[in-house]
Specification:
By secondary structure, the protein is mainly α. The protein is 39% helix and 5% strand.
């Protein structure tokens, strides 16, 4: 089944891509995946194709990202994603019991959706709220300090059409509505962000600081944040002030020059000033470990172009046997000497056999078994000791 995305989704996709520089549009892939999930409820093959189309990528590149992050669902998901933390802290406090109770009550397992399409249940490795454990989230909004009975009450209210209030954060919305926000668009529901607030454990550090009079030295919370124009102006003024504070250059001295016998040279003869090119040579830049000289690439080039130019700035530094490199003759009419890179590569390939289904590349089962047998026996056919046997096995 092919999905045709709405004009609104396509317009939002263009808006997302416009947030990034022209040669960095691939950075828009993460919010675009949230955007297609907001329309379909999951990242379908059509959603992958859509992202590839608008970014000029292939579907394999998009799929590699979509399958890496658990927030991108690869099959239809319910209106409410219920995630129960079963990691160490929450588990000790009863998180696994909460999950098991919900799984039995809803009749679903991990990453499964109820028959009415309302709730998808999953266990989460960590929800980053250990001081509130055990915790569960509904579409990433927190319900703190839950137990089996309160968790069942939340899901029952959701299935009945209600919207229970999270312990912290804004009022609940559907997973599709949440995906729109994750794509970078504001929640336009009336009063959507009017509720919620920080929990007491979150404020504990602030309470202790106020109680003991702890504060950051010289910190003024009312300090305004400067705009870029103001910051640039302040930087220019600071640079001009630093230039003005530099000492004036010292002119050449007119002191008389002494002759070879120590006597003064004739009056009026002065020591000649050093030529401009006689200054102390500049210190070389720190070595980077590269055999080619560094090339500063402008910011408007793609990372691939910058990498290629840094590795191979021009024909003078090209390697004749580098794969895919055509090296023209230099100014003397002779091509650079070819190194032994190809020979070294061939030797490396020959020394490392391809991996089989059962063992890593380069391992030979026969040699290993022979070495183990000889080591266990304590001697080989020549009567060598254990150490000699190991050496013999290695040579074999």
């Amino acid at each position: 089944m092919t999905t045709t995305f709405t004009d609104e989704t396509r317009e939002r996709a263009r808006e997302i891509i416009a947030r990034y520089p022209a040669d960095r549009s691939r950075s828009a892939l993460l919010p675009l995946l949230h955007l297609v999930q907001a329309e379909e409820g999951y990242v379908s093959p059509a959603g992958v194709a859509f992202c590839a189309e608008v970014l000029g990528l292939n579907k394999a590149q998009v799929g590699a990202v979509a399958t890496f992050y658990t927030m991108y669902k690869r099959k239809p998901t319910g209106d409410f994603l219920v995630s129960v933390c079963t990691n160490t802290m929450c588990n000790v406090l009863g998180g696994q019991e909460v999950y098991d109770t919900l799984a039995e009550h809803l009749g679903v397992g991990h990453d499964e959706t109820t028959a009415d399409g309302t709730i998808t249940l999953e266990h989460a490795e960590c929800l980053a709220a250990c001081d509130y454990g055990p915790v569960m989230t509904v579409n990433y909004d927190f319900f703190d300090g839950v137990d089996a009975s309160t968790a069942v009450g939340v899901v029952d209210e959701l299935r009945a059409g209600g919207r229970p209030m999270p312990t912290r954060g804004a009022r609940l919305c559907t997973l599709k509505e949440m995906a729109v926000q994750l794509a970078g668009f504001a929640d336009e529901r009336d009063g959507a962000v009017a509720d919620g607030g920080p929990g007491e454990p979150t404020l504990r550090g602030l309470r202790l600081a106020q109680q003991h009079g702890v504060s950051v030295p010289g910190f003024d919370p009312n300090t305004p944040i400067r705009s870029k124009a103001e910051a640039d102006k302040a930087a220019a003024e600071a640079k001009a002030k630093a230039e003005a504070a530099k000492p004036a250059p010292v002119e050449a001295s007119a002191a008389p020059v002494k002759g070879g016998d120590g006597a003064s040279a004739p009056t009026g003869v002065t020591e000649p000033a050093k030529p401009a090119d006689a200054t102390e040579p500049a210190k070389p830049a720190d070595a980077t470990g590269s055999t080619t000289r560094d090339v500063k690439a402008p910011d408007d080039k793609s990372p691939q172009v910058r990498t290629a130019e840094t590795r191979q700035p021009d024909a003078d530094t090209a390697v004749a046997d580098a794969p895919g490199t055509k090296v023209p003759a230099d100014r003397t009419g002779t091509a650079p000497e070819a190194g032994d890179a190809r020979a070294a590569e061939a030797a490396g390939v020959a020394a490392n056999a391809p991996a089989g289904d059962g063992k890593p590349a380069g391992d030979e089962a026969g040699a290993q078994e022979r070495n183990l047998t000889e080591a266990k026996a304590g001697t080989d056919a020549d009567g060598a000791g254990p150490a000699d046997a190991n050496e013999t096995g290695a040579q074999k």
